[in-house]
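Database export, one record per block. Field names are fixed; values are copied verbatim from the stored entry.
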Amino acid sequence: MTTTERVALAQRLGEAELALQGAMRGLDGSPDARTRLADARTEYLAAEREALVALGAQPGPDAIELLASSQATA
């Protein structure tokens, strides 16, 4: 991975985190606010997954999702 790719990835993740924080601050219970939060969360998770794949840490999120789903059914 080149430095340019790393910078772009870090920038995407940072922007997604700022959007998520902004959506959380603006959460007032309205449908629009909940939609903004869901969209921001989706973008953040996509950026995070891309970063983890680029860093070679892909099994981590899959293991966490598996653990979370097994706890939800218990």
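Remark 1: The chain has a mean pLDDT of 87.
Remark 2: The chain has one domain: 3-73.
End of record.
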